[in-house]
Amino acid sequence: MKTRDRLRIAMQKSGRLTEPALDLLNRCGLSFRQSRDKLFCFGEGEPVDLLLVRDDDIPGLIAQGVCDLGIVGRNVLSEYQLTDGREAEPLAEWRPLGFGRCRLSIAVPQEMAYEEVGQLAGRRIATSYPGLLREWLRTNGVDAGVVTLAGSVEIAPRLGTADAICDLVQSGGTLVANHLREADVLLESEAVLAGPQTLPVDERGDMIELLLKRLDGVMQVRE
Ligand code: ATP
Ligand code: ZN
């Protein structure tokens, strides 16, 4: 990989994390000129540019060295480490960022009894997070079927393709609308600053250290 002298940060192009991530970077003293295709944003003051992509692609882009850092949900980062990134060098969660908070939870039909995880044995659970779900089932010694769906996981029980779901929950409104209730929590998530375990030993590494210092200052003010 050709070395770059400018730092490149990957973030979500359009979604829940986009505005708060940009806002946070602005507070860290970074500003960007938005290019027309909006894939790449050139940094105006500091040598830091943005790559605007789907959140699911962010861990892979860091692992490949296309980007130095990424702003992504812990849920996406952890899922990557357990699936596509299994063989790769593990990525580090450099800082929790305090926005995009949600839980990855098991939800069951309102009328289904649920006291403990063992009751999921032999059931089918629909999810977009098969890595995290399988890991949690294995840790709890439960043998259940995992049905992987890319989206609209919450309608699986009504369609009869699953008995329960494992999905992101924030307020719980979507669950109620689909006659489901939150039964167990696998992961508490929020947006994080992700990167490689070891920082590059060049100007980019120095810039990351400066950015982390500014970030800590900004986060302290917010607390
Ligand atoms: P993309 O097009 O980038 O793939 P997406 O649909 O996967 O977008 P969003 O729905 O914008 O992504 O969610 C991005 C992140 O926001 C999630 O991965 C999660 O970390 C966080 N988040 C917070 N609350 C919720 C919620 N209620 N539902 C889904 N994600 C949430
Ligand atoms: Zn996504």
From TrEMBL:
<keyword id="KW-0368">Histidine biosynthesis</keyword>
<keyword id="KW-0460">Magnesium</keyword>
<comment type="pathway">
    <text>Amino-acid biosynthesis; L-histidine biosynthesis; L-histidine from 5-phospho-alpha-D-ribose 1-diphosphate: step 1/9.</text>
</comment>
<keyword id="KW-0808">Transferase</keyword>
<protein>
    <recommendedName>
        <fullName>ATP phosphoribosyltransferase</fullName>
        <ecNumber>2.4.2.17</ecNumber>
    </recommendedName>
</protein>
<keyword id="KW-0547">Nucleotide-binding</keyword>
<dbReference type="GO" id="GO:0003879">
    <property type="term" value="F:ATP phosphoribosyltransferase activity"/>
</dbReference>
<keyword id="KW-0963">Cytoplasm</keyword>
<keyword id="KW-0479">Metal-binding</keyword>
<keyword id="KW-0067">ATP-binding</keyword>
<feature type="domain" description="ATP phosphoribosyltransferase catalytic">
    <location>
        <begin position="54"/>
        <end position="216"/>
    </location>
</feature>
<comment type="similarity">
    <text>Belongs to the ATP phosphoribosyltransferase family. Long subfamily.</text>
</comment>
<comment type="function">
    <text>Catalyzes the condensation of ATP and 5-phosphoribose 1-diphosphate to form N'-(5'-phosphoribosyl)-ATP (PR-ATP). Has a crucial role in the pathway because the rate of histidine biosynthesis seems to be controlled primarily by regulation of HisG enzymatic activity.</text>
</comment>
<keyword id="KW-0028">Amino-acid biosynthesis</keyword>
<keyword id="KW-0328">Glycosyltransferase</keyword>
